[in-house]
Write a structure and sequence with these properties.
Largest sheet: 4 strands, antiparallel
CATH architecture: Roll
Order of helices and strands: HHEEHEEHHH
CATH superfamily: Homing endonucleases
Radius of gyration: 17 Å
Distance between the termini: 38 Å
Number of strands: 4
Strand order of the largest sheet: 1-2-4-3
CATH topology: Endonuclease I-creI
CATH class: Alpha Beta
Number of domains: 1
Helix content: 40-55%
Length: about 140
């Protein structure tokens, strides 16, 4: 996987400024999703996903105990996979459980959420509308100028 120097990243950010924002090429998808892939991802996201926004960006995330599903989402929609371990009180054996979290942010999150939108339940559509309508500080400043 190719990594960017800090100067390359700065240049790409400067060129990428606009209505969509910066897209990190190191987190690009490796496959083009079919309509079946999009419907599958929407079903997964409906039950397991979490759309959210912060002051700096919008996000979409899915956490699983098995690596396969987050890896499939990453290959179709880009993003990254974070691996965490947590001790589960209910297990009683003291062993930590491993979790795999697929996450996209910014432009990729907005693109993913807009792509799956028509397949979602009314409740999830409202959540997605709120996340997509949430302006980041940078967006607010750009629109105010």
């Amino acid at each position: 996987m190719r990594t960017l120097s800090s100067e390359q990243a700065k240049l790409m950010r400067a060129k990428g400024k606009g209505s969509l924002g910066f897209v990190d090429p190191t987190k690009a998808p490796t496959r083009h999703p079919t309509i079946q892939d999009i419907a599958w991802a929407a079903g997964i996201f409906e039950g397991e996903g979490c759309p959210f926004a912060s002051n700096s960006s919008q996000f979409a995330s899915v956490v699983q105990k098995q690596e396969w599903l987050p890896t499939q989402l990453q290959s179709l929609f880009g993003g990254s996979i974070n691996i965490t371990q947590r001790k589960e009180a209910w297990r009683g054996d003291g062993k930590p459980s491993t979790y795999f979290q697929w996450q996209v942010s910014g432009t990729r999150a907005r693109g993913f959420l807009m792509t799956i939108f028509s397949f979602m339940s009314p409740r999830r559509k409202e959540q997605i509308k709120w996340v997509l309508g949430h302006q980041t500080k940078e967006q607010y400043l750009a629109n105010s100028a």
